[in-house]
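Hey, I'm writing a tutorial for new members on how sequence and structure tokens pair up, and I'd like a real worked example in the thread rather than a made-up one. If someone can provide the structure for the chain below, I'll link this post from the tutorial.
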Amino acid sequence: MRFHVKLEAMDLWRYSVYNMIHSKQGLFNIFIAVVMVALLFLRWGWLSTNLNYIVLFIMWILIFAVWQPVIAYIKAKKQIKSAEGQAALDFEFGTQEVKVSQGGQEIKFPWKKIVKIVVTRTMVIIYMDKIRAYLLPARVIGGDMGEFSRLVHKHLEEKQLKGI
């Protein structure tokens, strides 16, 4: 099973946001933003007498809920414009190993080297460890998701799979 992947900035952004939301920091950011929104509405009468507090609360909400995803998008755009970001990846999922090639370079690894595979609505994330991962956008897999799922289930344990 082969896939030719040309990542876009939105692919990298979605991956960054996924990691943000599923980390302790991401959960903390969401919690703070929700608390600030709740306090803003629950204490509106008290806050409306002091514009400084309203501005402060709105700034906190923007920092925790908007600023970080915007920064992640800017970084994704920058990364896609780099030489590595411009080159497409070719994936070949075989019965014994997975082969990834980019710009004339090739790496092969056995299925057991894959730590985890996560499937979201927009992408498949293939984790090699806690930091390194390969992204397969859903638009690339298309109608082959069923076949890909069967192949993955043959080679990995159920605890290594999420959403597939």
